[in-house]
């Protein structure tokens, strides 16, 4: 019965139906071919040469090493890259070092000091580029012309290659671009900013070369508006802009204070609300800009979760409560703009190698690997944000981890960067350290939207931006700071990105 009805229906082709049917077929074909032509014209990257990089690395590594809390390499897999400058080339790059899980020694001056160090042991990576497809000459020529033109106006393109990614249909990918030399930078003079502490005051500590403060980040597909301090102050009028995190966030916060101060006529109308002086040790600062009735604050929180103590055996020992937000969180709550970070302290050395250190409830884990712990802590942070942040009032940012550039050793074994006065020509690319991936994953699961300030890739080029031996008035060549950043310098760019996001959201 049913089958005969179906047959009947399917075979009853009336002329009108046939007409409609063929019209649909025709318009589909028309649409598809139009779309294909449009797609071909609008994505020139399809015709650009694709190159595969093959990496040989000195030290062996695997993801298993991460779990075991061992030395880790960063993202050394083959990936296709787009070549801007030409055909086959060989280049050798000293690897960029990210704060990684589980490296041996992590502190510049012992456990109570700044979170620097934390790096992979130095290694040289060989890149051998092999061209896979013939280049369509058009784009290449225009790139060469661009280079020449850029050169003659005093602007230099730095990266030689970049990773091909599917072009984002909408918006602009701020992470893809190059550093352009720009004499109109820096955005403020060191002498006009009293907020730069010794550790970041490279010029004050005797660094003579200045080019490191004159590079502007230029995204490939769009422009970042130049930072306008007046406009930024207007954006935060009557509001609280709050940075929470480790000393690298203090670095960015001091940069923001300096950038904003440049628009204030009477510097006396900017002051710390409790008269505190900026030092390395504390992190509890709220600077008021009287003219705009706003505050720009910084709260130190190395892990974002609570650093606690618990009885282990006979003694009370320091632990990290993975299930409890930092007790300072009450001070972040009412903020209008929150910029978080945590990365550098999640290391073998700073976390007692994960032995009897991580605590949940009354349980102190006898041993826990650092990436599991990091994930749990960020979950705790994410739930806190979801529970306590009002989406209509507060914009939340998380700054991705900043790379460090120790060459020829670790922070405490002669690692250095003092000779670098130019950005690197190329970086490893890739997705960056595992912490960024975990952060991204946690943020995707959250209810409150969080914008990632993705500064990892662009900062990788900037080996020239660290204090090196100029992190102190009295220089010692033996210990260098290749983790923090000189001011003015690279963190100014991070703040320009923050400014960009605040304007466009
Ligand atoms: C890198 O290449 C150079 C020259 O081709 C070679 O001597 C060196 O051993 C290579 N290094 C690694 C880690 O493969
Ligand atoms: C690349 O390196 C190989 C061996 O190291 C060498 O024979 C070749 O000429 C190099 N190519 C270029 C373009 O430098
Ligand atoms: C770590 O630092 C300590 C001193 O703080 C030093 O004794 C030890 O040798 C260092 N270990 C490594 C692997 O660098
Ligand atoms: C950097 O500074 C030096 C002199 O201090 C100058 O010769 C050079 O052209 C500058 N620019 C770049 C991009 O290195
Ligand atoms: C900065 O912003 C202010 C206020 O929006 C505006 O009046 C001023 O012209 C801007 N300055 C520049 C250099 O664009
Ligand atoms: C931070 O400052 C506030 C306000 O003065 C104070 O109540 C709080 O105890 C301070 N916290 C720390 C950790 O210094
Ligand atoms: C980077 O490029 C500049 C000019 O484009 C060149 O002078 C310099 O030697 C290059 N550095 C490296 C490490 O290849
Ligand atoms: C951050 O930028 C890098 C390129 O610099 C990219 O590989 C990575 O996926 C980006 N991460 C996020 C979360 O956007």
UniProtKB/TrEMBL annotation:
It comes from the Eukaryota. The keyword rRNA-binding does not apply. It is found in: Membrane. Its main location: membrane. GO terms for cellular component: Golgi apparatus; membrane. It holds the Pfam family PC-Esterase. Residues 171-223 form the Trichome birefringence-like N-terminal domain. The keyword ATP-binding does not apply. Residues 224-499 form the Trichome birefringence-like C-terminal domain. GO terms for molecular function: O-acetyltransferase activity. The chain crosses the membrane at residues 20-39. Keywords: Membrane, Signal-anchor, Transmembrane, Transmembrane helix. InterPro entries: TBL (IPR029962), TBL_C (IPR026057), TBL_N (IPR025846). It is a single-pass membrane protein. Belongs to the PC-esterase family. TBL subfamily. PANTHER family: PROTEIN TRICHOME BIREFRINGENCE-LIKE 6, PROTEIN TRICHOME BIREFRINGENCE-LIKE 9-RELATED. This is Protein trichome birefringence-like 6. It comes from Arachis duranensis.
């Amino acid at each position: 019965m049913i089958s005969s009805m179906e047959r009947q229906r399917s075979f009853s082709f009336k002329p009108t139906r046939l007409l409609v049917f063929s019209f649909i077929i025709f318009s589909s074909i028309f649409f598809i071919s139009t779309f294909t032509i449009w797609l071909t014209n609008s994505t020139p990257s399809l015709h650009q040469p694709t190159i595969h990089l093959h990496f040989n690395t000195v030290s062996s590594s695997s993801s298993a090493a991460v779990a075991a809390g061992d030395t880790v390499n960063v993202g050394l897999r083959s990936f296709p890259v787009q070549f801007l400058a030409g055909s086959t080339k060989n280049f050798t790059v000293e690897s960029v070092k990210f704060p990684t899980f589980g490296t041996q020694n992590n502190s510049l001056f012992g456990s109570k000091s700044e979170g620097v160090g934390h790096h992979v042991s130095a290694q040289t990576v060989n890149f051998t580029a092999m061209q896979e497809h013939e280049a369509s000459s058009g784009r290449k020529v225009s790139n060469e012309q661009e280079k020449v033109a850029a050169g003659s106006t005093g602007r230099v393109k730095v990266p030689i290659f970049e990773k091909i990614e599917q072009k984002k249909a909408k918006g602009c990918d701020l992470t893809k671009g190059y550093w352009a030399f720009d004499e109109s930078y820096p955005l403020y003079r060191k002498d006009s900013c009293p907020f730069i502490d010794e550790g970041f005051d490279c010029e004050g500590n005797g660094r003579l070369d200045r080019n490191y403060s004159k590079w502007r980040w230029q995204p490939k597909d769009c422009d970042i508006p130049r930072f306008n301090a007046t406009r930024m102050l207007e954006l935060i009028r009557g509001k609280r802009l709050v940075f929470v995190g480790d000393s690298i966030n203090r670095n960015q916060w001091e940069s923001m204070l300096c950038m904003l101060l440049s628009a204030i006529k009477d510097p006396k109308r900017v002051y710390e609300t409790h008269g505190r002086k900026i030092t390395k040790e504390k992190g509890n600062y709220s600077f008021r800009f009287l003219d705009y009735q706003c505050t720009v604050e910084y709260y130190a929180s190395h892990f974002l979760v609570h650093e606690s103590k618990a009885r282990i055996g006979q003694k009370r020992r320091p632990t990290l409560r993975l299930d409890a937000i930092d007790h300072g969180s009450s001070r972040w709550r009412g903020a209008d703009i929150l910029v978080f970070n945590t990365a550098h302290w999640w290391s073998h050395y700073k976390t007692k190698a994960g032995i009897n250190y991580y605590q949940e409830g009354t349980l102190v884990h006898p041993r826990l690997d650092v990436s599991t712990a990091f994930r749990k802590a960020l979950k705790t942070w994410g739930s806190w944000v979801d529970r306590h942040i009002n989406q209509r009032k507060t914009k939340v940012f998380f700054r991705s981890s900043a790379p460090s550039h120790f060459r020829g050793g670790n922070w405490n074994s002669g690692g250095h960067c003092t000779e670098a006065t130019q950005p690197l020509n190329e970086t490893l690319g890739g997705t960056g350290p595992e912490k960024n991936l975990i952060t991204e994953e946690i943020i995707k699961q959250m209810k409150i939207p969080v914008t990632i300030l993705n500064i990892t890739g662009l900062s990788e080029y900037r080996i020239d931006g660290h204090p090196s031996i100029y992190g102190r008035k009295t220089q010692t060549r033996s210990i260098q700071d290749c983790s923090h950043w000189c001011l003015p310098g690279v963190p100014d760019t991070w703040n320009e990105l923050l400014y960009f996001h605040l304007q466009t959201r």
